[in-house]
Amino acid sequence: MKIHTLEGYIQNIYLVEYPNRLLLLDGCSRADVPLICRFITDELRRPLHQLKLVVVTHMHPDHAGGAHALRKLSGAQIATANCPGQWYQGIDGVLMHLSDIALALWVAGRKRKARKNLWYARTLKPDVYLPDGVTLPGFDDWQVLHTPGHTDRDISLYHAQRSTVYIADVMVQVRGKLIPPYPVFYPRLYRATLLKLQQLEPDTVMLAHHSEIAFADIDFGQLLQRAPTQPVTHWRSVKTKTRKALGLSHTSP
């Protein structure tokens, strides 16, 4: 097994190579699909149909946006958490989907990346639902860990033999420091996720918005201290700014 790390549009891409099959640890963004296909065919000199599984750790544009397109091109299956319903359901879901795409484009602008089309379906149609603790179909050296908080359906992927875990957006690095992600919809679950990863004690941790780092370099005490106790979301931010602009006190969530 070999893990290739590619620089995606706004996040790192982790493609796992085996002698006769390939595994993508996250669904990437729509803008990353040509990059992944070129890497498989030109760099690895492998046919696209050897991409057997694409995992979607959660539904944000840089983690789910390329999944359906990659399945169509390669025949790979899509696997995700067995969480009920769709993340972007209802009218609020439509608005949140649009705002998340806008946020991804804003991040791209901060990275001085050319503006690209990030549009993707807000409903995911997976082939496989993954309960906590199971192994990935066809890749039983990887174990699924439910690690919610950022959203209700985040998952991480643990490889015991290599002693590493891919945690997607459980934490991000800003100005050289690891901090909780934005948003955090479920603060209680997020704190439980941090404790779960702390107890796992792998040698290394792979992040979507940073490179692979040593587990020993993560200050979980500081992360837990900085973890929000109330939801930190788009809508709360908008409400807070509106109240401040109108001179109103904060009286409701």
Name the descriptors.
253 residues; six-stranded mixed β-sheet; disordered C terminus; globular; alpha/beta
| Computed CA radius of gyration, to the nearest angstrom | 18 Å
Let me know the number of strands.
Answer: 14
Beta-strand content bin: 15-25%
Compute the separation of the termini in Å: 47 Å
Largest sheet: 6 strands, mixed
Helix content: 25-40%
Q: Name the helix and strand elements from N-terminus to C-terminus, one letter apiece.
A: EEEHEHHEHEEEEEEEHEEHH
Mean pLDDT: 93
Which geometry do the CA atoms define? globular
How many helices does DSSP assign?
Answer: 7
**What ranges have pLDDT less than 50 throughout 5 or more consecutive residues?**
248-253
Strand order of the largest sheet: 1-2-3-4-5-6
Class from helix and strand fractions? alpha/beta
Oligomeric organization of the protein chains: single chain
Write the layout of secondary structure elements.
Elements: E1 2-7, E2 12-17, E3 22-24, H1 33-43, E4 51-56, H2 61-64, H3 67-74, E5 77-81, H4 90-110, E6 128-130, E7 135-136, E8 139-146, E9 155-159, E10 164-166, E11 172-174, E12 177-179, H5 187-200, E13 204-206, E14 212-214, H6 220-226, H7 234-246
Parallel strand pairs: 3-4, 4-5, 5-6, 10-13
Antiparallel strand pairs: 1-2, 2-3, 7-8, 8-9, 9-10, 11-12, 13-14
